[in-house]
Amino acid sequence: MTADPAGTPATHPDLPEVSARWVRMLAWYGPRYVDKNFSAVRLLGDPPDTENPRPLLVYLNHPSWWDPMAIMLLCARYFRHRTGYGPIDAVGLEKYRFMEKLGFFGIDLQSRAGAERFLKIGRAVLSTPNQTLWVTAEGHFTDARKRPVSLRPGVAHLARKADPAIGAEAVPLAIEYVFGEEKQPEMRLAFGEPIVLGDPSRSASDWNTHLANRLEQTMDHLAEASLAGDLSVFTTLGDGKRGVGGVYDLWRRARAALKGEQFDAAHGSRGDAS
Q: What's the CA gap between 211 and 195, in Å, rounded?
């Protein structure tokens, strides 16, 4: 899950190998695939500072099958010179083996060995410069409106055991999928403020609560902005498929041609809805 065109090799023996060739292929294909299925991709606020080489733990809510694609879009745009890794259910990885080449590593969610592998690779990522660990921290599909936010314990253990001298940070990432004026939904994203890791005086339980609260705040912030409806506060990362399609758009196109106007497929306030 690296977007580094040079394919920076892993610098820690516990890190799996990532294929620069496969990453380049996905960086080309991914945005086009998303554009076909979403009317827009929007980011609220600013991304984290990825020029600083400190390792990052980006942990996010998990509302949809599309979440890994959202991660890959962010990698291609903002994390190009960093190598990224992410855990995935080992059963699911068996169906999509190519994802190993992108930095995903399989873990058995129900076994102690799976938890130990997650912590081993996670600690390696968070001790290596220019690396990012992406984790859907809820551990299963969860509606973006569910409160309180509950995280699996793995990220808290990583946060507690991180080496303070390295300065690794955790960054909450909120994702939601919004239907509005267009036939296709929008993908909306927001990063929260970074959290410095490695305070062993805070228990794993305290870390879990702290991380969950910060993710919940970020999700609430994104939800409030979406409800307000002011798109000017978002940065548009992708402008995808617009319009309803079929006979309705054919009629609108013909109507615009008769008026000598340029046809805009956008529905509602961004197009001709009459």
A: 8
